[in-house]
Write a structure and sequence with these properties.
Number of helices: 8
Strand order of the largest sheet: 7-8-9-5-10-11
CATH superfamily of the largest domain: P-loop containing nucleotide triphosphate hydrolases
Radius of gyration: 18 Å
CATH class of the largest domain: Alpha Beta
CATH architecture of the largest domain: 3-Layer(aba) Sandwich
CATH topology of the largest domain: Rossmann fold
Number of domains: 2
Oligomer: single chain
Number of strands: 13
């Protein structure tokens, strides 16, 4: 089974240290790990370090991977579409980047399957540049899924989606992790989504790892006050499920 941990990961932008010795405990395949924290906490930088596209100190440790260069798929926040490609072409291109450039029938099937799984099969012939922000996010997610990675890094993939699409996308990601043994690390601002879908939660604040554990262990009033500067509480709703209630800013 695939697993990932980090040891004292760091990163700088010029003279500014933006990630400081982040050591994530072992995260295993089949899990959804929500990475939460305020703006500029270092979430995107952490993902870019794990994906290997940003240099820095420390170590990212992978276990059980088939091919280290193809094991990780990373979806950044920015999904601006500038290429003159259709949705189908862009997702097919993402697949061929990891499967070789010779086109096979199963490549086309994989693209169709990824689009349909996210409910965007009807957009297959649309140009990327003509899509809404939410539609581009779903295409970006399809581009990751079609690669069939072992580790999926999603940087705020639901920020431009309406509530229906958010739940659809999160359900799909949750099912993929459970069914395929994929490890999913997902940066979220909506903490109720983290409470609903995440097996583990990592809180980043000020470029460091503030806490890590199950949602019940980590999403607490004390941690929310320290990391987010809010007065908030997690209470059970009428169905007995945890729900975040925010009372005030500190």
């Amino acid at each position: 089974m695939v697993a990932l941990s980090t040891h004292r990961l760091g990163a700088r932008f010029g003279s500014r240290q933006v990630l400081r010795e982040v050591s994530l405990p072992l995260c295993r395949g089949g899990e959804v790990v929500a990475v939460i924290g305020p703006n500029a906490a270092g979430k995107s930088t952490l993902f870019r370090r794990i994906a290997g596209i940003l240099p820095g100190c420390g170590e990212c440790r992978l276990e059980g991977v088939r091919d280290a260069e193809r094991a990780i798929a990373y979806m950044p926040q920015d999904q601006t579409g500038t290429a003159v490609l259709t949705v189908f072409e862009s997702v097919l291109l993402a697949r061929k980047q990891v499967s070789g450039w010779r086109l096979a029938a199963d490549d086309l099937t994989a693209v169709e399957r990824a689009l349909e799984a996210l409910g965007i099969g009807s957009l297959a012939d649309e140009l990327l540049s003509e899509l809404s922000g939410g539609q581009r996010q779903l295409v970006g997610l399809a581009q990751c899924l079609v690669r069939e990675p072992q580790i999926l890094l999603l940087d705020e993939p639901t920020s431009a989606l309406d509530m229906h699409r958010q739940l659809e996308a999160m359900c799909r990601v949750r099912s993929l992790a459970q069914d395929t043994g994929m490890l999913v690390l997902i940066a979220l601002h909506d903490l109720n989504l983290a409470l609903k879908f995440a097996d583990k939660v990592a809180i980043l604040a000020g470029g460091t790892l503030h806490d890590f554990g199950t949602a019940a262990e980590v999403v607490t009033a004390d941690n929310l006050a320290a990391a987010f500067r809010i007065r908030a509480r997690v209470e059970a709703c009428s169905q007995g499920k945890p729900c975040l209630i925010v009372d005030d800013a500190i």
